[in-house]
Every structure is written in structure tokens, then in C-alpha cells.
Amino acid sequence: WAKSEGKSRWALFDPERNAREVARFRLSATMPAALERDEFYVDYQPLVALADGRVIAVEALVRWQHPEHGLLAPDKFIGLAEETGLIVQLGRWVLEHTCRQARQWSDEFGDDAPFVSVNLAARQSRDPSLVSDVESILRDTGLRAGQLQLELTESAVMGTAEDQTSALRKLYDMGVRIAIDDFGTGYSNLAYLRRLPVHELKIAGSFVEGLRVAGRPDPVDEQIVGALVTLAHALGLTVTAEGVETAAQAERLRDIGCEAGQGWYFARPGPPAAINRLLATQRRR
Ligand code: C2E
Ligand code: MG
Ligand code: MG
Ligand code: MG
């Protein structure tokens, strides 16, 4: 109450805001049951080598098929799940589900199978059972550690507690790949980044956007992407560019030295069957 005192009374009783809060509360309250009822599922989006167009990895992107509200994108519920803590269970489900799928691709496509890349919320990376969860999921699914990548945002890894870095270190030492997601949009401490156990930087789509117009790219975005690629390579990391929507962008990124791209130009996120078709076509080539 004290905090609201300076504001108008109207703000205190804002009915729209109240309705939004109630809706959020209801949604978060139904999440545990939704998990039980299998209302969540995972779509997969390819990460493509810019040199030859091969699918090298697929990112797991969770969706919620809600019985009343229809299909919900992660932006609608991941934040909520972080607030309530359910992200730990949901995240574990995504991880296990994705590793099981990855094992199937591995069985069917052997060395041509992509590795899978799973997003980790900040709260998951702080969960003390993260390392043992990953270990037991790999054991149960029979997936090799190198076939799994975990994506964390800058804010989830930068300047955080020592034990969290040591969890990342353990995963890295096990052979699990670590990527920094949406790189360039958070607060990076370069001295810190230098010491982090990481394999890959994923450049945020917002920087890739400026490379859109063929022949007339935004010179500032060009310079930024170039600098990020140079930085990544100096640190011995590979680079994936996110949000690649046009051929011109893909070509420019390849020329700049970026290893991989992800975006609608290559493929939208889709069900495992769509990835199967891509991999089968690739195998025939
Ligand atoms: P992200 O990890 O950066 O994932 C990339 C997002 O960009 C996805 O949105 C993807 O559908 C979208 N995208 C892909 N290609 C393009 C393109 O060419 N243009 C544009 N404009 N967008 C493109 P999505 O699926 O809505 O996921 C949003 C975010 O939700 C993800 O961003 C990630 O941070 C989070 N998320 C998704 N699944 C999970 C999960 O299982 N666990 C956690 N903790 N977070 C997740
Ligand atoms: Mg991601
Ligand atoms: Mg991203
Ligand atoms: Mg993200």
C-alpha cells in the first residue's frame, strides 16, 4: 500500500490491470495439472550450417495447447512458470522429452543426426539438482552428452553465484554443449565470458534484422554482427545467428564468418516429422 500512495486512486483499482492479474494467476494455477494432462508439447527448429545448408542441430521450443485459450507461445507462460517455480518441473519435462526424441533421431540417422538444443531458464540453471537431472536423463535415454546443448541467456549466467558456474562447468566437462542465447541483448561481462565454460554464441535476431535488404544492409548492424562474430571466434566459440528470414541475410552472415543460421528462411519450428523429412532429404543428397 505504501508504495502506491503517490499514485492516483484510479491506478490502485485499475480494473483492466486487475483482470490481467487474475488471468495470469488462473493460468499459473492450472499449469501443474496441464503438465499432468500432457498439454505441453515441443516444436523443433533447425540450426543450419551456412557453408552447405546441412541441419546440424535443432532447438526445442515448448508450446502449450490450452483447452480454453488455444495454442500458447512460450512468451505467454515461461515467465509465469519462472515466478511460480514450476519452470523447474516444466523444464525437466522438456529436457527429457527432447532427449528421448534426439535418441530416436540418433538411432535413425546415426552420424547425420542433429544435436538438440534446449533452453534453460535462469531459475533452472540455479536449481541444485540440474546436473544430476541431466545425468539421469542422459542415462535413461541413452543419449550421448555431446548430442545435447543447453541455451542460457547472458543474464542467466553473468555475474551469478559461484555454484551456478560450477554446475555449468560440470555439464561442460561431461561433454554437454553450452550456448549463450540472444547474445548482445543482455549485459555481458567480457572478462567473465572469457572464463565461462561455453561452446557457442547465438546472436540475437534483432541484430540480424539489419542485414535484411540485399545490397543495402544497415551499416551499424553489419558492424555489430561482424564484431560479435570476431569476439566469439577470439574466444574459440562458434556462432549461430538467430532470426534469419531472407537469403540475403544468410549470405551476408556466411560472408561475415558466422557458422550457422536459424530462422524462417530455413524452416519454421515444427513437429518431429518435419525434421525427419528434412533429415531424410539430406541423407539422400
Ligand atoms: P529463443 O530461445 O531465442 O528462441 C527463438 C525464438 O525465435 C522462437 O520463438 C522462434 O520461434 C523464433 N524464431 C525462429 N526463427 C525466427 C525468424 O526467422 N524470425 C522471427 N521473428 N522469429 C523467429 P518462440 O518459440 O516463441 O520462443 C520464444 C522464447 O521462449 C525462446 O526464445 C526461449 O527464450 C523461450 N523458450 C522456448 N521454449 C522454452 C523452454 O523449453 N524452456 C525455456 N526456459 N524457455 C523456452
Ligand atoms: Mg533459444
Ligand atoms: Mg534466442
Ligand atoms: Mg530467448
Automatic annotation (TrEMBL):
It comes from the Bacteria. Residues 24-283 form the EAL domain. This is Cyclic di-GMP phosphodiesterase Gmr. The gene is gmr2. The chain holds residues 435 to 719 of 719 of the full protein.
